[in-house]
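Exercise 7. Predict the joint structure of the components listed below.
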Amino acid sequence: MHLLTKLTEWNAARQKVREMEMEQQGKCPDCSGRGIEMFPEKYLYSSHYICPGCNGSGLFEDWKK
Ligand SMILES: [Zn+2]
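Solution:
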């Protein structure tokens, strides 16, 4: 599947750019510094969860660990 490979590469590249942007701002890439993660598909049960990447701090330093 050529298209799928391309799509995966594109996603990985986009993720890298995002991580760099968030690092410059000192924010966790997973939650954009909010400290919580939104799961639209689980919205009915709960609106948000503590971000597992940064443990809710929203800081890039904590996400890196
Ligand atoms: Zn986070």
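Discussion. The chain is about 45% helix and 5% strand.
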